[in-house]
Amino acid sequence: MSEPILQVRDLHVRFNTPDGIVHAVKGATFDIAKGEVVGVVGESGSGKSQMFMATIGLLASNGEATGSVRFKGQELIGAKQSDLLKIRGSGIGVIFQDPLTSLTPHMKIGQQIVEILTVHKKIGRQEAQRRALDMLELVRIPEARRRMGQYPHELSGGMRQRVMIAIATACGPDMLIADEPTTALDVTVQAQVLEIMRDLTRELGTSIALVSHDMGVIASMCDRVQVMRYGEFVEAGPVDEIFYAPHHDYTKMLLDAVPRLDQPDRPGHPRLPAVNLAGRETLLKVDDVKVHFPIRMGGGLFAKTKPLKAVNGVSFQLKKGETLGIVGESGCGKSTLARAVLQLVEPREGSVVWLGQKELMTTRGAEMRRMRKEMQIVFQDPLASLDPRMPIGASIAEPLKTQEPGLPAAEVRSRVKDMMLKVGLDPAWINRYPHEFSGGQNQRVGIARAMIVRPQLVVCDEAVSALDVSIQRQIVDLLMKLQAEFGMSLMFISHDLAVVRQISHRIMVLYLGRIVELADREAIYERPLHPYTRALISAVPLPDPKLERAKPRAKLQGDLPSPLDTRASLTFLKSKAINDPDAEQYVPMLIEAEPGHFVAEHDPV
Amino acid sequence: MLGYIIRRLLGAIPTLFIIIAATFFLMRLAPGGPFDGERRLPPEIERNIKAAYNLDKPVVEQFGLYLGKLVQGDFGPSFKNKDFSVSELIALGAPVSLKLGLLAITVAILVGSSLGVYAALRQNTASDYTVMSLAMIGITIPTFVTAPFLTLILGVYLGWLPVAGYGDGALANMILPVTVLALPQIAIIARLVRGSMVEVLRSNFVRTARAKGLTEMQVVWRHVLRAGLLPLVSYLGPAIAGLMTGSLVVEQIFGLPGIGRYFVQGALNRDYTLVMGVVILFATLIIILNLVADILYRVLDPKVRLG
């Protein structure tokens, strides 16, 4: 075997913090060969990103790296700044996680690519411009010439990440460090970005160090895998060995916790009980709900407004004790729909009938406040959605105090403690503050706060998306356990199709504010009818390297069209579209293809 | 862009109206009037004077008459400076005040932001702490303390600079007033810029710039400065307002014949029209300069679009 591109020997990273020395990486040793993709997996705080930042000398100022990192034989730890500068960007390119904040906001994207070329290659501006354009085309950015003059905020997330890849690879580096490169992206966009990275290794022989928490991404991309926990490698080996014959308990736990799109109910976890929903009472009947936000177009004294149809005519029913999963990519209106149902967003139209009698759309004031006892919500970011100055006990008690003001304090306290126990929190923590807890524990607080008034409907808006897989698994298990005990209905919103499959009885797929498919979970994953549903499902990388290698690659090209363009709603029914971005377009009907399986009209594939 | 500016200017009309009304009626509420003196005037003379200046009419009617003149661009005659109209007095004082203000804001921006950038790049070192402590002192000590203190040292003991007076606009006469006026702003701007620079230096896109292999100099010039100085632009509006109020005191202390001095004298003498004129001028300036700052902000930050 040839000399490895990167040789890391006994690398330590320490941070000097006010709370003492934090030993983030404890003696990492590994090699990356030419053209090899090495995955580093681990949960947040495992030190996986810091390890690579240390490699290229980009630790925060309170960080210190010791040990040895050789890049093509050259020692990088303790190297002169001028030598490091030559390697950064030229020998080693870096793709960071969040493409919006990782690009300079006030610099045109063309300029950002030109910059790295002029720094490392001795070429003129003209030549650099030309090569930058080539790079944008290489990463498949449509209308590359026009994009050169745009700012990062004018591009979608997927495009920004492709610009990031163009910058990282502009100087033809021998190695790429990809730090959670697709974590902030939608699945279909993720599939495209991964495909571009795959092409780079295949065609240019670039080695990739892929840092990710997503086992699916690792399985689909990597040759070898290093599993990291608390700054140490607990296991390392070829990808198949790690996935099919893991030795270390932590690797096993990680793999077990990963939600599998292809295996919804796995041993050792609560199963979604098979329930006969037909005989149950309808909790919620939603009919033709619309939320249209007026968007100002252009400047001028009397600028016109265009409606942004965030939710555009959605109808469904929710039975008592049922979980309805709502999936779709960012901007599809899933959160807005939930907020419209809960009467938390203006302006809304349509009808939401509660228990067959009460029209929520016209219920206001004190009456609506009383109704809120029955409908609660759990948000995405557990820490940010709790008041940092309130002990968790007070946060949990708040809905109860609002809804049952006469309750004696002792009774409130005992109910809060009861609920804490039920969500897996020690009641002794009642006076602690959110910052003292982990993300998973804070989300348990969020769930306890929602459940304390025994609502009949709980909306979980990306409630597990910000959590590590092992914690995610626990929260999903908890929600299922609570549903079995209290029988509430759930609207479970997520962009993660695998998690939705674990928890939901029925699943709704949204695309630009409309339902494209609505069916039982088995039907939707095993017999998807709509091309968009199929594309979504096939885009999810499975944590199974063999299946991933055998899988045909993503088909959906390009980005989500602008929701302001009325033609966008007919992306899958082009035959009926009128070619005018402002025209009133045909509305695709929802057809019941088989009992309980609804699909929107679409062109034959 | 033009639509935006017009919308903003139209939106300023009610603001300006409220300021005018509030000043007008507050002035009338203050005890005493422009023609009350130690020596009581004979009743008929007093009546005549009041009639000449419309002071015998009900206050609301006076306000209406004043507004009527105002929309024609007439600030009226000064009650106390005989033979001068308010417009003439403003025209006399404006060049002095303008010179003082422009010099002070320029010095404040240049020195303040340089100090801020310097401190941010040497974050948590002795030089950072020194600059920031000095800035803290600059903010806490009021102008009426720094002015006599600096005058005493530089003017009286060392004799390097004139103690007061305009000296027909000689630079030496401007150094002390400009320094005194700019000092608190330098301090505020330095702290502001340091804070935002430190934040930008830690941001993801700066990490990207470093990962590109740029030198620290290139990183700072191309990627950090523009974002780091943005908060300064939003602070320009309040800064200018601060300078204007500061100039009232400074002009008084250094005996500069600027607008500020008229304002103070006008307020003391109940020279209604003069005070109104200066207030309207200042308010208009602040509104316009805030608009300029907003436009500048949008030019610097492509994410903010006019609309």
Could you characterize what this model shows?
The complex is a heterodimer of chains A (605) and B (307). Chain A is an alpha/beta fold. Chain A has 2 domains: 6-257, Rossmann fold; 281-529, 3-Layer(aba) Sandwich (Rossmann fold). Helix content of chain A is 33%, strand content 25%. Chain A contains 20 helices and 22 strands. In chain A, the strands form 4 sheets. In chain A, strands 16-17-18-13-19-20-22-21 form an 8-stranded mixed sheet, sandwiched between helices. Chain A has a 6-stranded mixed sheet with strand order 6-7-8-3-9-10, with helices on both faces. In chain A, strand 7, helix 7 and strand 8 form a beta-alpha-beta unit. In chain A, helix 4 packs across helix 6, helix 10 (249-257) packs across helix 16 and helix 15 runs parallel beside helix 16. The two termini of chain A are 47 Å apart. The mean pLDDT of chain A is 88. With 307 residues, chain B is mainly alpha-helical. Chain B folds into 2 domains: 2-71, no CATH class; 93-300, MetI-like (MetI-like fold), CATH 1.10.3720. Chain B contains 12 helices and no strands. Chain B has helices at 2-29, 43-52, 59-71, 86-121, 126-140, 143-157, 171-201, 204-211, 216-228, 230-254, 259-269, 272-300. The longest helix of chain B has 36 residues, at 86-121. The termini of chain B are close together. The mean pLDDT of chain B is 86. Chains A and B meet through helix 2, helix 3 and helix 6 of A and helix 1, helix 8 and helix 9 of B.
